[in-house]
């Protein structure tokens, strides 16, 4: 504890800030560590040093002549390396490295941040816990270091481990389909289905723990000059219908029995997937996962009574699809759903009950048979022979 400054000392040091130091950079490291859940401060300083070295190399290459083969070659190598690592979103110019290669760009390649972006975990802290507990693997290798950097090529191999309980729960999750609608022609296919999820025990449409989801799949077919299929552009959008602020008014639907028009709402999809399927000679040869949208669709979502409505506009086509919000057969699952969920336990218990009943029946039958045998032996007389009868008669008369 330092002493309080005297009056003349305060006057001399009034322009000196003892709380915020220039080397702290406004506590930028603390902010980045908190945002990306970096547990070790040394990781931040290593990332900062790497960014400084990259900028230093870029500045030295910029001193060479623009047409120098050495500069052209190594600039391209540096850009390809950073793009392959995922630090750069696109293969930009070497001049962009000054602003785009930052500590945050490297932190976004940490395995916990990538898991959160792929919806494998809700928060980065949860993803870090899953990694430390050994639930995650990249290819065949189990990753337990939260500082592991996932490159662009490794993203497709980021999965749960085979023995992970989380993977087991995800595999046991079952989609309960409510309704399905589709549209197909030579140029575009559109599919819409509404469903809910249950995992291990039933969550019906009326349950507070279940969400009603809707999956919209759009496939645009591309042909070559000979009208042979060359590509299929695939886009998947998943909407959480339970997130809409307006709850159902009655059993007739979300907007009452008297609703006779489509009321459009603004719902952001919780998941968007873009893929390209490459075909050659009518056979699938490659599947590419994209992080941007090749074809832009005009999509409107809304509700018409108890139905979820989607309107897709593509070029001159306007496609109208509708799904029911719930299924009558699933609203009251009854005993059939309970039996289905606990089938193995019910079979085991019934088998034990039948064995106990069989053993008890056998015991009762044996006991009843012994009782009948004893009673018959008491009431049945002895079978005397003729010699014994004559002997008894002689002894009786001798008396």
TrEMBL record:
Pfam families associated with the record: Ribosomal_S4, S4
Which residue windows are transmembrane per the record? 345-372
Q: What is this protein called?
A: Small ribosomal subunit protein uS4 N-terminal domain-containing protein
Annotated Small ribosomal subunit protein uS4 N-terminal domain residues:
4-108
GO biological process terms on file: ribosomal small subunit biogenesis; rRNA processing
Source species:
Ogataea philodendri
Q: Where in the cell is it found?
A: Nucleus, Nucleolus
A molecular function (GO) held by this record is:
rRNA binding
InterPro entries, sorted: Ribosomal_uS4 (IPR022801), Ribosomal_uS4_N (IPR001912), S4_RNA-bd (IPR002942)
**Organism lineage:** Eukaryota, Fungi, Dikarya, Ascomycota, Saccharomycotina
Keywords in alphabetical order, please: Membrane, Nucleus, Ribonucleoprotein, Ribosome biogenesis, RNA-binding, Transmembrane, Transmembrane helix
Q: Does the keyword Nucleus apply?
A: yes
